Amino acid sequence: MSFKLGKKSLSNLEGVHPDLVKVVHRAIEITTVDFTVIEGLRTPERQAQLLKEKKTTTKNSRHLTGHAVDLAAWVDGTVSWDWKHYYKIAEAVKQAAQEFEVSIEWGGVWDREISQYESAEEASKDYVKRRKAKGQSVFLDAPHFQLAWGKYGKTDL
What we know:
The chain has helices at 7-12, 18-30, 44-52, 83-100, 120-133, and strands at residues 35-39, 68-75, 78-80, 104-106, 109-113, 144-147.
């Protein structure tokens, strides 16, 4: 089954780094779960509001520079937050990123590039386990995909 991005998704990709846009376009072609782009480039005001609402943990988001997108699973005509769908979306983004040799990080495993794991589900579970073992807090953001910090700077748009 092949999906395509709608007008709202395309609009939400405006201002996003071209490498990430390319990955998202390819991922929608190969995913087994339809998705919509719910956010791309953000204003500092929007980021501050999300921080206030505890929907993010940082003021310094990659969304502010066009280096991140949020992809929401679109199932039966509505957004679903069920993680089973996000594992599949992450696998499609991983494949697309590898095809284009683009380094992507995912909000299900913050400490690795998406290409470094075999299974999105196992990688996320392992990430949680590693954080808890160190006594560290865990913040997961299944819809979030960003260009890797080490490979893409803040001003390379």
